[in-house]
Amino acid sequence: MQPIVWDGKPITQPGVYAKVDMEAYHGRLVADDEESASRSFLWTLFNDSPAHAQLKHYSNEDREDSTETESEALLLGRAAHHMILGEAHFSESFVFHPETYPEGATYPSMIGAQKPWNWNANWCKAWGRDQKGREILRPRHMDSIRGMANGLYANPLVRAGILNGLIETTMVARDPRTGIWLKIRPDGIPTDSGDFSDLKTAADVSDEGIEKAIGETGIFLQGAMTRRVCNMLGIEFTSFSPVFVLKKAPFCARVKTLTDGDLDLGDKVLDASLELYKRCLDRGVWPGPGGEQTDAEYAQMSVWKRKRIEDQLALIEKDSRL
What we know:
Elements: E1 4-5, E2 15-18, H1 22-25, E3 36-38, H2 39-47, H3 50-54, H4 66-69, H5 72-85, H6 87-93, E4 94-96, E5 100-102, E6 114-116, H7 122-129, E7 135-137, H8 142-153, H9 156-159, E8 166-167, E9 169-174, E10 181-184, E11 188-189, E12 195-202, H10 207-216, H11 219-233, E13 239-246, E14 253-255, H12 260-283, H13 303-320
Helix pairs in contact: 2-12, 5-6, 5-8, 11-12
């Protein structure tokens, strides 16, 4: 598989593209008269509400910068992935900023009294501009990245190459029903099989913790979207196996393959989310969690909470008769 090197212009053809930076990926990426959607956007639309998703939409002038608000855990996870692939991979995409800078010096001089790093200083700003698109990490991140990299490499499936493949590559294909472009960015696109994987940092890699993450963070939708885009591009897809690694010591890693049932459910969520997205675009209305309700709704506590209260009432009544 030979990816197309992105030329910085709107994408008009489906395919696998290299050198698409994160800012462009989270933007429209396609022509101004067309629309695109990532997995994270569609999951917010479906799981939270269209109003929540509209806050992140590239057409929203007041949207938060996705590259700035990305969770630290995701950034460190990507860095750990690159580290296990080798120093060349890591240094091409990431760099640690120094702990100090020379006060009063003109960049790149290092002569001067050293002060703690400060991004408001002109020297630090110039250093940042000189990194040519590399993602910048803080020195305190080093131990976490190395810990996760070591934890990943301790896993036999990771050592066997489950995370290997085309790195930092974007896949795009146009949904024929809605006309919306789907865009995905796997951690690695396999070049010798159809077994896709994706690195996930986690606070819990027990069976229960992983099962919870698959449903609550939309990993099953990501797997379904990867399968859909692969099928549209004629790329082999056999399975989707997230690689979970603890964000903190002992940095254990586990690999889990999603079931066909969860992928099929993800297909249904994908179709429903695309239809909802198109409806919001056509009408210019992005409703909140309650939809477009016109009447007040009844609300009641959960079954388990009601039972706890009823049990407590029964206990108090029993004690009063003693």
